[in-house]
Amino acid sequence: MNRLKLKQISIATFVSLGMLSTSSIAANDIVKIDGSSTVYPITEAVAEEFQIATRIKVTVGVSGTGGGFKKFCRGETAVSNASRPIKLNEIKRCKESGIKFIELPIAYDALSVVINKKNDWAKEMTLSELKKMWEPAAQGKIMKWNQIRAGWPDEPLRLYGPGADSGTFDYFTEAVIEESKAIRGDFTASEDDNVLVKGVSGDKGGIAYFGLAYYEENKNLLSAVAIKNSTGNFVLPSLKTIMNGSYNPLSRPLFIYLNAEKVKSDPNVKKFVEFYLKYAAELSKEVGYVPFSKEEYAAITNHYKTLQTGSAYKEPKIGLSVKEILELSAANN
Question: Averaged over 132-142, what is the pLDDT?
Fold first, then answer.
């Protein structure tokens, strides 16, 4: 993929901008990141450009949002990718370990429901139909497509989805089944979205859900399902439908969480975060996600500069922009 014009910027330019010193070029420090496979494409793109620009090594793991927070709260990583807000039990775990964190929204995502290219019947679905196939009561019982909707074929229904450590899993169960982590157990689970892509692309009766970037990258292999929204319209996931709010309720913000102490004490982590915020909009869009507005990124950057710790998303914030959520959080602290 084209990585903007960053590769054309010389090391000397970054030195002159104060983003890089000759000592950091020689340093062997590593910025360690882990967490969400959904956020991975954005962070990996940022890390690639940052390493080219600064020669500071960055490692990006993919253990799922929950798995990433386990490492983060043990102090093993400086940054944690998350496709959902941090949970209360994770906040407690971090507090017990003395880890204070800074929460930064970085882009919008559309949780995309995808089917095999040969599936010519399930182009549109309702939330109740998704619930019918994925809810715990469906296990071992709802095994054919014609059990979901009359008129659909007598074809085997095979489900592929993120594992329980995934923030996408949490969001899907809460939005569709309306109960966190409630889901049937007889589906193919993986924290690696590429495994899910491969499964559905090779299975006529397959269906999966994951972040928009993985659908955008594999449009030649998969078809997206239009989901019935709150106004009764069937809407496909896209940059336009996320930004205008019509792709609901399966649109959501994505996050990175920063170890507050490492941001203060490790200059390489600080440089990486500042680099991330500078290029988040362009790189998020490039890998298939939806950037916030300039005003929202300005609010996120200001939030970062204050080094305010804790979560602004402990409770659902319906109808508020990222800027409004962060300003409300600042006012309450």
Answer: 97
